[in-house]
Amino acid sequence: HVQLVESGGGSVQSGGSLRVSCVASGYPHKFTCMGWWRQGAGKERDPIAVIYTVDVSTWYSDSAQGRFTISQNNTENTVHLQMNSLKPDDTGTYYCATGLRWVGSLLKPSQYNYWGQGTQVTVS
Questions:
Q1: In angstroms, rounded to a whole number, what is the distance separating the alpha carbons of residues 73 and 86?
Q2: Residue 83 class from Cβ within 10 Å (0-12 exposed, 13-18 middle, 19+ buried)?
Q3: What is the rounded distance in angstroms from the CA atom of residue 119 to the CA atom of residue 106?
Q4: What are the beta bridge partners of residue 37?
Q5: pLDDT at residue 76, as a whole number
Q6: Which of 12, 29, 46, 61 would be a feasible disulfide site paired with 16, CB 3.0-4.6 Å?
Q7: Which of left, alpha, beta for 76 (phi over 0: left; psi -120 to 50: alpha)?
Q8: How far, CA to CA in Å, does 79 sit from each of 53, 82, 89?
Q9: CA 91 to CA 93: how far, in whole Å?
């Protein structure tokens, strides 16, 4: 039974930094992809940063590019998102997601088999 547990959310002032982390348990192998998605109030859940573990390539949304950094630890099946220069528009619930195998696009929810419960990030 795979479980994803996020941590590290919280409240921060504009310009500040936060690091959110996700630990995946219950799966003894490496996930094909791991990523962070964000859902703001009344908005859809969108990808923010994802990593394709096969070649460690990464993708960032336009809003995250240059401010956020995604990193992973394959041995521990963990993924982190370092967020700097935070803005109020970054406010939302951040979800960790992992995929078992490649199905076509890192930017589609269907690529991911497991999702965490989410951690709230509030920037004021």
A1: 24
A2: buried
A3: 21
A4: 47, 95
A5: 77
A6: 12
A7: alpha
A8: 11, 10, 23
A9: 7
Q: What are phi and psi of 115, to 5 degrees?
A: -130, 145
Measured in degrees and rounded to the nearest 5, phi and psi for residue 110 equal -65, -15
The Cα–Cα gap between 120 and 7 comes to 9
Measure the CA–CA gap between 97 and 37, rounded to whole angstroms.
7
Q: Please give the DSSP secondary-structure letter assigned to residue 109.
A: G
Residue of 18, 40, 56, 55 whose CA lies nearest to 95: 40
H/E element, 51: strand 45-52
CB 67 within 8 A of CB 85: yes
The rounded percent of the chain whose pLDDT value lies above 90 is 86
pLDDT tens-place string over residues 49-85:
999 998 999 999 999 999 999 999 877 789 999 999 9
Instruction: Evaluate if residue 102 carries a pLDDT over 90.
Output: no
Q: What share of the chain is helix, strand, coil (3-state, %, to 5)?
A: 5, 50, 45
